[in-house]
């Protein structure tokens, strides 16, 4: 979906040609003398329109309007949360085959963040998965004009949102693909494709290179699968070489059976989403390719399957990680932390300013936080505060969880330096304490996205989270919204 930004007064919106004109009307709206204001005033007076977020009135546009259809859409107080809720209510309408061009017009001056919320929500509503469907219909809606009172004032916010929409879609697309269409090899090819963008480099490490690096924990998880592992290394160089990068590490288990500690059959198909952390790293780099901010970023994805064949690791096995620490594997379904620990050790060679891992790691985090907030664990208060603020700004929230040292007591082992699991209590915390052993003094954060990376049921599919949180954090580190060069998203935006 392509977005453009225009300065559109309500009187100008009347003459804007499109298949659907959506007018966002906040509480307290004061009608003027234009045709749209008259319609809103009439609908309110007759009781046909409420201005609570999502309440709307669909009409065929009057003869004096250039649009074919019109929706008067209530958006409450007009804040980003209310705007998102309002646009979400039009999900089915936006997928109508007759609508190819739409305009979303703010009836009044919009709050900071509201334009971004509108763009992101429109993009999410318009996404349709087609990769493995033989007769899939591509979405008809291909172009959306966002109309505001002063396009220049919100252009940076708009450009960020447009780029984020591209990145989120890329993440959703790869997370949604079945495991046979998203093997470690194919995920590596997706990363290589990102390397065609200016400023992005990609390096792929196969089993031999990973073995040479001494990544015994990563190798152990992968050895039960016929699919060869990949350690994917992405670099975005947007600043001077002297600037320390932020390193993102995404868990890339392309399918998780649980291994010998086999999962129940029910809903096991959703374990294709266990590479949601990897997908979010790919999505962030896709957005960076659009925005080109002045920052250095490294992305690491340890990608493999967790399968239960005759070569698979067994409960009780002891493996040696890249750090030299030995690990007793008590549960082969706690494999994500095993691939991550070696990638975290590898990350130290980049001397990062911050190290962030992203993983669909524990069901315990889903129990604790549900599907609204990702779990945030951090060794640095400053890093935690920045990530939390970025999540709020992106409408992709997280919640900080504790990291008390006492939680690590359950990871003690009689046969190795550390066990890969503790008891059930505090499972998301003990998993984070395990990972913390492998980061040293680097400012580090862990995002447990097991509850937020995908939805089940009739709405089954990847969400693309936490691409928004991560991108907003990185742009904050780069002094965004200022960028080095004119962005691709900005080039598509016209401020008339």
List the topology elements.
Elements: E1 2-7, H1 10-14, E2 20-25, H2 35-46, E3 56-60, E4 69-74, H3 80-88, H4 91-94, E5 101-106, H5 114-126, E6 143-148, H6 151-176, H7 184-194, E7 200-205, H8 207-212, H9 216-222, E8 230-237, E9 246-250, E10 252-256, H10 276-291, E11 296-306, E12 318-320, E13 326-328, H11 336-347, E14 354-359, H12 363-369, E15 374-378, H13 381-393, E16 398-400, E17 418-419, H14 427-436, E18 444-448, E19 454-455, E20 461-462, H15 467-477, H16 488-492
Parallel strand pairs: 1-6, 2-4, 2-5, 5-6, 9-11, 9-14, 10-11, 13-17, 14-18, 15-16
Antiparallel strand pairs: 3-4, 7-8, 8-11, 12-13, 15-18, 19-20
Can you offer a commentary on this structure?
It is a single chain. By secondary structure, the chain is an alpha/beta fold. It has 2 domains: 2-149, Leucine Aminopeptidase, subunit E, domain 1 (3-Layer(aba) Sandwich); 173-477, 3-Layer(aba) Sandwich (Aminopeptidase). 34% of the residues lie in helices and 20% in strands. It contains 16 helices and 20 strands. It has helices at 10-14, 35-46, 80-88, 91-94, 114-126, 151-176, 184-194, 207-212, 216-222, 276-291, 336-347, 363-369, 381-393, 427-436, 467-477, 488-492, and strands at 2-7, 20-25, 56-60, 69-74, 101-106, 143-148, 200-205, 230-237, 246-250, 252-256, 296-306, 318-320, 326-328, 354-359, 374-378, 398-400, 418-419, 444-448, 454-455, 461-462. It is elongated and about 80 Å long. The two termini are 20 Å apart.
What's the quick description here?
The protein has 496 residues and is α/β, with parallel strands linked by helices. It is 34% helix and 20% strand.
